[in-house]
Write a structure and sequence with these properties.
Blueprint lengths: L10 E4 L5 H12 L3 E6 L3 H16 L4 E5 L5 H15 L4 E4 L14 H29 L10 E6 L12 H21 L4 E8 L14 H8 L10 H12 L10 E4 L14
Parallel strand pairs: 1-2, 1-4, 2-3, 4-5, 5-6, 6-7
This protein binds nicotinamide-adenine-dinucleotide.
Length: 272
């Protein structure tokens, strides 16, 4: 089957690409022709799974490089971009995907739980976006081109708009990502850098396994999804690939919800 978008020769960094949505995005961008930097956390298990993603890409004839970095650490992020550009010469696309959850009732939430989620989901995305902007700006203003000199795609969540009891840290981080993304889009558009978000609904990955890994929990989850199925990493990955491609050249500052209608308030269907 012909691939829907063409990213031939483009270089993409995908954070947290050893698992779930990030893994799906890395494989999809590679299928579209991109060279992919597969970022993973600096621990043995993440490294092994990052290397497996690289292997899948190279087995299929693509190019990829696994790079360890904790994206909540400034020095790690700088090193990630240095390693990526030393290996692939340029960087064209950042997919800011790495994220975590640490649920707790607000009265029990420790400062450490609050901080860890904000450090990863919001500060980590800031650090990577800043480094990508620096890389893109360093090669802008080469002759005015018809298309963007770089693209940043945040993986946000439906919880950038849906409040989430017992996950106040997570919802606050994703709400922050929404205005971070829009502010950067406004700031960087004149320099021909496009910045957008993809906001997944419920996607079948390890982060939310308890929400889908028993028939009871899945049935309860499906009540929130008008389209009647849980999402797969590929659903998100295809949206990311489109935003990373020149097919979406006039799109910036937008959140694309990939959620089977979760943000449509399905409980109001026939009620209210
Ligand atoms: P996942 O747990 O499978 O993947 C998250 C990845 O991020 C893992 O590879 C993890 O190692 C990595 N990571 C975490 N902290 C990191 C750090 N400090 N440095 C580098 N990597 C780090 O979960 P997922 O569902 O694939 O989540 C990916 C993104 O999608 C997250 O931002 C998450 O908030 C978002 N999201 C997921 C869903 C869903 O239903 N699965 C819904 C909405 C949004």
């Amino acid at each position: 089957m012909r691939h829907a978008v063409d990213l031939t020769g483009r270089v993409a960094i995908v954070t947290g690409a050893n698992s779930g949505i990030g893994r799906g995005v890395a494989l999809e961008l590679a299928r579209a022709g991109a060279k992919v930097v597969v970022n993973h956390r600096p621990n043995e298990d993440s490294e092994r799974r990052g290397n497996e993603v690289v292997q899948s890409i190279t087995d299929a004839g693509g190019e990829a490089l696994a790079v360890a970095a904790d994206i909540s650490q400034e020095a790690d992020v700088e090193q990630l971009f240095l390693t990526a550009s030393a290996h692939f010469q340029s960087i064209d696309i950042l997919v800011n995907n790495a994220g975590i959850e640490q649920p707790a009732a607000i009265q029990d939430m420790t400062l450490a739980q609050w901080q860890k989620v904000i450090d990863t989901n919001l500060t980590g995305q800031f650090l990577c976006a800043r480094q990508a902007a620096r890389a893109f700006l360093a090669r802008a203003p080469t002759p005015p081109s018809d298309t963007a000199v770089g693209k940043i795609i945040f993986i946000s969540s439906v919880h950038e708009v849906i409040p989430w009891a017992f996950q106040a840290n997570y919802a606050a981080s994703k709400g922050g990502v929404s205005l971070l993304m829009q502010s950067l889009a406004q700031e960087l558009a004149p320099m021909k850098i496009r910045v957008n978000s993809v906001a997944p609904g419920a996607i079948r990955t390890p982060i939310n396994a308890p929400a889908w890994n028993t028939p009871e929990s899945l049935a309860s989850l499906l009540k929130l999804i008008p389209y009647g199925r849980i999402g797969e990493p590929e659903d998100v990955a295809r949206a990311v690939a489109w935003l990373a491609s020149d097919d979406s050249d006039y799109v910036t500052g937008t959140t694309l919800f990939v959620d089977g209608g979760m943000t449509l308030y399905p409980e109001f269907r026939g009620a209210g």
